[in-house]
Automatic annotation (TrEMBL):
GO terms for cellular component: plasma membrane. Pfam families: EAL, GGDEF, PAS_3, Protoglobin. Residues 334-466 form the GGDEF domain. Its cofactor is Mg(2+). GO terms for molecular function: catalytic activity; heme binding; oxygen binding. Residues 174-246 form the PAS domain. Residues 250-301 form the PAC domain. Residues 475-730 form the EAL domain. Transmembrane segments: none annotated. It is found in: Cell inner membrane. The lineage of its organism: Bacteria, Pseudomonadati, Pseudomonadota, Gammaproteobacteria, Pseudomonadales. SMART domains: EAL, GGDEF, PAC, PAS. Gene3D superfamilies: 3.30.70.270, EAL domain, Globins, PAS domain. This is Diguanylate cyclase DosC.
Length: 749
């Protein structure tokens, strides 16, 4: 702003119009004679004033405030110069409007430069003192002094007015700035005197709530009574924390009721001030944060829900489960349970029908599962094809089983999708929630039960039990020890003789290699660990070891006097599906020196099922090497006659469960007879497993079965034992039917 405008504004602000100036003069009793009187003495005071100006500044320089302003020599010079001019004008006039304007301008410049009023007035007093002494020198000219005082006081009123007008303007400017900022921030403001409980709120504060400020009371109740009851305790706490100095400022979000009854999310910010008498007041702002809260809520919802099904996700479950567990601690709380659901063979749907179709299935599944629940129960999608259900308020935990069964039934209903009819199933693990459980424990328990349901054949539910847990621990331990067993050379092979039982004598024709794990002092049977090896994939390397070990051992025995002894080795499907299994087998045969025709590979029906084309190709290649293939445990699986024709099989091993029933159990006897007959008519060699008694042997002979193995002849033996009993002295052991192993005293340790 130019100084002319600033001056005009100042004149206007003080109201210095002609009339006002006139009035001020009258108040001071100013007469035209006063002007004449001063004008007449103007020349004679000139030199006094010059000397005085020097002294004035010397005096002022003794005070730090003014001293800092006049430290610069050129400024000082300028100031002294304008001071001189000022004094000249004081005596000379003319005392017109221009005089007033020039006085105001000087006041304005002084005020802007930071010259304080008190210095100005002190300078005046010094000036009068000087003039009085110098000019009148003991002979006071009363009239002149009176005129001088009038002029000086006129100037002083102008100076004081300039200063206070400038201060008022600064205050107004700052208020206007503040009001502008508030309007821009769109915030309401409040000021609460705690001692008197007087609350001031701005118009905007009230308008945010659709209220009129004047209709609000003046106590804090008009604020706090509108706060959402759930949010009030925390707000009071935040205010208290700030008042007592525990938080640097009040910063709290809460909901407040609007005139229409809706709640608005606001942020209150404020700071407390304590006055000299110890009274506190807090003042601050109120901002409407509803838009941010809405977005936060949306994000919160999105983070906790599955976009495909709209169900809660794992994060949501992480919130619900601890709540449910907490509830169980309340007295009179009813039971609660957790269900872990996993669709059976869902991968197959995804892989064969595509992910879109898979998604549709998941949506339908979530719909069906939801229908099986009561309000208050929760269904979450845990991930992929896994769902978790939280059942609360159950009369007894068995009710959870009913819900699980309902779910299984509902899922099993045919599902029509894109012109196809699908039948899906799921497995469910159930665990009853215990108040002492951690969320993780409950989930693990349900998961373990789910695993049990899957193991037991899928499409069913299973309940968690302590036993399951113990077993899982055991399996875990087993698996970690098992993974190192091969490297630690802990596997051993035992061999069970396979005998030719034609006529009345028996003769060893082969051995079946059976794997054992020497774990410390215990010899672990294969059924306890083969499945684990298959799960981990270690069966491939272990199976490789078995094959080479068995071939080498049998070759040794061939060279030791049993040239036609054949070697039977059990295979796992993972081995068969292994890339270049045939190549690896040829290598093993070559290294051991065993003829391919002396090797029998035993496979089970389930292996033939796994991937029949690939399996078929491998089996054909094996057969063309000259290796013979035996179908193990025949009768216990699908017993499909189709396999017998389709695959290049040479031997059928009748499972011991049939032989054990013969001849007293008519049904088992009939089945045994049928299997043996079937094998023979297809031109397969039939080997009977599990011959434990003399009548078993008689029965087999009567059926024309030529080969057998079982405890009656020998338990599986270590290589050394078998060597002693069957290779080194073959005539003693292998050709009589009476020298059988005792069932009561197993030879295997
Ligand atoms: P399998 O191939 O059917 O082997 C015969 C099983 O019956 C052996 O059990 C054997 O000890 C047992 N056995 C033989 N005669 C009698 C008898 O008169 N009465 C009774 N009650 N049992 C008899 P083992 O050694 O415990 O092996 C169990 C299964 O483990 C084997 O059944 C085979 O499927 C699997 N297995 C063994 N070694 C291997 C291996 O090296 N690789 C693979 N993949 N599986 C193996
Ligand atoms: Mg076998
Ligand atoms: Mg078998």
């Amino acid at each position: 702003m130019g100084s002319a405008t600033a001056l005009d504004e100042l004149i206007q602000r003080i109201g210095l119009n002609r009339q006002e100036i006139h009035q001020r003069r009258n108040l001071l009793d100013w007469q035209s004679s006063d002007a004449d009187c001063l004008n007449a003495a103007a020349d004679s005071v000139s030199s006094i004033q010059q000397a005085f100006t020097e002294r004035l500044y010397q005096h002022l320089e003794r005070f730090p405030g003014p001293a800092s302003l006049i430290s610069n020599a050129s400024t000082l010079q300028r100031l002294k110069h304008s001071q001189q001019a000022y004094y000249q004008r004081l005596w000379r006039g003319p005392y017109d409007a221009d005089y007033v304007a020039s006085r105001l301008r000087i006041g304005l410049v002084h005020q802007l430069a930071g010259i304080e009023l008190k210095w100005y007035l002190a300078g005046y007093r010094l000036y009068l003192d000087e003039i009085l002494t110098a000019l009148f020198d003991g002979h006071p000219n009363q009239a002149m002094y009176a005129s001088l005082l009038k002029a000086v006081f006129f100037d002083m009123t102008l100076a004081i007015d300039t200063y206070s007008a400038a201060q008022r303007k600064a205050l107004e400017d700052s208020e206007a700035r503040f009001a502008r900022a508030l309007r821009g921030a769109n915030d309401g403001v409040w000021d609460w005197h705690l001692g008197h409980d007087r609350l001031y709120v701005s118009t905007r504060w009230a308008a945010m709530l659709g209220l009129d400020r004047d209709s609000l009371g003046e106590s804090s109740a008009s604020w706090l009574n509108r706060v959402h009851p759930d949010d009030l305790p925390a707000l009071r706490q935040a205010i208290e924390a700030h008042r007592s100095g525990n938080s640097p400022l009040l910063h709290h979000e809460y909901r407040i009721r609007c005139s229409n009854g809706d709640y608005l999310w606001v942020l209150a910010r404020g700071v407390v001030e304590t006055d000299a008498s110890g009274q506190q007041r807090i003042a601050g702002s109120q901002s409407d944060i509803s838009a941010r809260k809405a977005i936060e809520q949306q994000l919160l919802h999105a983070a906790r829900h599955d976009p495909l099904t709209g169900l809660g996700n794992r994060l949501r479950l992480d919130e619900l489960l601890p709540q449910a567990l907490q509830q169980l601690n309340h007295s009179g709380a009813r039971e609660a349970a957790l269900l872990f659901i996993d669709l059976d063979r869902f991968k197959l749907i995804n892989d064969s029908l595509g992910h879109n179709c898979g998604d549709q299935v998941l949506i339908e599944v979530s719909r069906r599962l939801t229908h099986c629940l009561r309000p208050g129960d929760h269904l979450c999608r845990f991930g992929g094809d896994e769902f978790v259900v939280l059942l609360t308020d159950l009369a007894c935990t068995e009710d959870a089983e009913q819900v699980a069964q309902r779910m299984l039934d509902s899922l099993h209903l045919p599902l029509h999708l894109a012109g196809q009819t699908l039948v899906i199933s799921a497995s469910i693990g159930i665990t009853a929630l215990q108040p002492s459980d951690a969320s993780q424990d409950a989930l693990q328990a349900a998961d373990l039960a789910l695993y049990q349901a899957k193991q037991a054949g899928k499409a069913q539910f299973a309940r968690f039990s302590e036993e399951l847990q113990v077993n899982a621990h055991y399996q875990l331990e087993l698996q970690s020890a098992l993974s190192q067993a091969l490297a630690r050379d802990e596997f051993v092979l035992h061999f069970q003789p396979i005998l030719c039982i034609e006529q009345h004598s028996t003769r060893i024709v082969g051995v079946e290699a059976l794997l054992r794990w020497q774990r410390g002092t215990t010899l672990v049977p294969p059924l306890d660990f083969i499945a684990s090896l298959e799960d981990s994939g270690d069966i491939v390397s272990v199976g490789d070891w078995v094959l080479s070990q068995a071939c080498r051992q049998v070759r040794t025995w061939q060279l030791a006097g049993q040239p036609h002894l054949h070697c039977a080795v059990n295979l796992s499907s993972r081995q068969l599906l292994q890339e270049n299994f045939v190549g690896r087998l040829s290598e093993i045969l070559h290294d051991s020196g065993l003829a391919a025709t002396d090797l029998i590979l035993e496979i089970t029906e389930s292996q033939l099922l796994e991937d029949s084309t690939a399996t078929l190709i491998t089996l054909r290649a094996l057969a063309s090497l000259g290796v013979r293939l035996a179908l193990d445990d025949f009768g216990t699986g699908y017993s499909s006659l189709g396999y017998l024709k389709r695959f290049p099989l040479h031997i059928l091993k009748v499972d011991r469960s049939f032989i054990s029933g013969a001849p007293e159990n008519a049904e088992l006897t009939a089945i045994s007879r049928a299997i043996i007959g079937l094998g023979q008519s297809l031109g397969l060699e039939v080997v009977a497993e599990g011959v434990e008694r003399a009548d078993h042997l008689d029965f087999l002979r009567a059926q024309g079965c030529h080969m057998a193995q079982g405890y009656w002849f020998s338990r599986p033996l270590s290589a050394t034992e078998l060597h002693h009993q069957f290779i080194a002295a073959p005539d003693e052991r292998c050709t009589t039917s009476t020298s059988h192993a005792s069932l009561e005293e197993p030879t295997e340790q």
